[in-house]
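Posting for a labmate who doesn't have an account.
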Amino acid sequence: MGLIRRCLLLLSFLIIPTSAVSETVLYCSPELSTGFYKDKISKKWGTTVFEPVRFTVKLNNDSKVVVIKLSTMVTKRMPCLVFNHRFTKEDNNIFCDNDEGTTFIYNKANNKFLYSSIDIFSYTSNIAGDSVGIFAGKCEKF
């Protein structure tokens, strides 16, 4: 019984390091940004251009999960799908989204991305929420 436990423990140490390093880290820089915001004084919505903010993306190697770190305080984790382009049939596109209204689309061939943050407590509800933003740009691998 003790020998089986030791073998299992040894195997777990051999497996864990390989899965821990099986991710791609991207450094993404928006080139374009636009969105909507609610003025705190007038309480009216308007359009805006957001200040581009670089962010980090961690994509596991099977492209099933992405973790986006927007700042030291905001991290988004999303499930992803790899899909073929309807004309080229290439599987370079990764589509990620979560139930909070955030999407991330990344093309592995040209490194372009689209990121959108459409908060469920924004324009469509009476609850004051975050701004709505769409960002487009390129990512570089670390």
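Reply:
Got it, the structure tokens are right above this. Residues 110 and 138 are 8 Å apart (CA to CA).
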